[in-house]
Amino acid sequence: MDNTGDDPLVFFHKWFNEAIKAGITEVNAMTLATVDAAHKPHARIVLLKGLDTRGFVFFTNYESKKGNELNDNDHAAVVFFWKELERQIRVEGVVEKVTATESDAYFSSRPKGSRIGAWASPQSQEITNRNLLDDNYYKYEQQFGADIPRPAYWGGYRILPHKIEFWQGRSNRMHDRILFTSEHENSWSKSRLAP
Ligand SMILES: Cc1cc2nc3c(=O)[nH]c(=O)nc-3n(C[C@H](O)[C@H](O)[C@H](O)COP(=O)(O)O)c2cc1C
Which of 23, 51, 78, 112 has the most CB atoms at less than 10 Å from its CB? Predict the structure, then answer.
């Protein structure tokens, strides 16, 4: 693997498009790791919903467990695994909230049920039973009608990467690992790691 070029975000795009072409399901699913105030890690899947020259965007509830963890510690890591291509991509960086305009634009593109769901679910909080969700859903559906605003507590984060590693499985476990490390803005150094 010597075709990675000098810009890991450009190369990520190339691999992402190849994964789409290969028909990989949930190609944008990534495991997001965050660290809480007691330095304990927590991981869960979220969906990549945007990628630009600055970084990787996902959307969530800012008051969820992950939201609180990112509030305490803005460092985050994500991992993609595309089994059929024997590829893994690891990203490490710090998060920033995307602008309200970006969150509004994405929120309004979501299906009506998902928009009401964002109001109905106090994400990560303990709830007494399933009925609470159904009751909330009904309540907000009645309250808003067709025009469902974005809750202030719901929006996007952008992971500004400082490390991106591309892993390509090869025979005899002699896999390729190419690590990009950010020196300063838009400048990356590249190294090869033993598998
Ligand atoms: C395939 C898949 C995609 C998911 N996408 C998201 C997402 O984009 N945003 C989100 O907040 N949760 C998403 N979830 C749910 C999270 O994994 C998690 O349950 C939820 O965000 C609460 O996490 P927390 O309590 O650590 O904050 C997804 C789960 C799966 C299995």
Answer: 78
Look at residue 185 and tell me whether its pLDDT is greater than 80: no
Q: Which atom of ligand 1 is nearest to the CA of 32?
A: 17
Q: What is the mean pLDDT of residues 128-151?
A: 96
Residue 46 included in any domain: yes
Q: Is residue 103 part of a domain?
A: yes
| pTM tops 0.90, yes or no | yes
Q: What 8-state DSSP symbol labels residue 125?
A: S
Q: What is the CATH number of the domain that holds 75?
A: 2.30.110.10
Residue 79 lies in a domain: yes
66 Cβ closer than 6 Å to some ligand 1 atom? yes
Question: In the structure, what pLDDT confidence band is assigned to residue 186 with cuts at 50, 70 and 90?
Answer: confident
Q: How far is CA 81 from CA 57, 70, 117, in A?
A: 17, 23, 28
Residue 54 known to be catalytic: no
Q: How many CB atoms lie within 10 A of CB 158?
A: 21
